[in-house]
Amino acid sequence: MEVEPGPFVQLNNQGVCGSLGLNEIDYVDFFVVLSMTVYFQKDTNLDQMKEKERVEYLKKSSKKVVKQYGPDYYRKVKPLIIERIVIGVRDSISAGWMRREHKGRAYYLVEFPYDPNYEYFHAGFAARVYFWADTGIVFQVVFGNGWGFVEIDQPEKYKDQERIMEYERQPPKKQEE
Question: Any idea where the domains of the chain sit in the sequence?
Answer without folding.
Answer: 1-41, 46-157
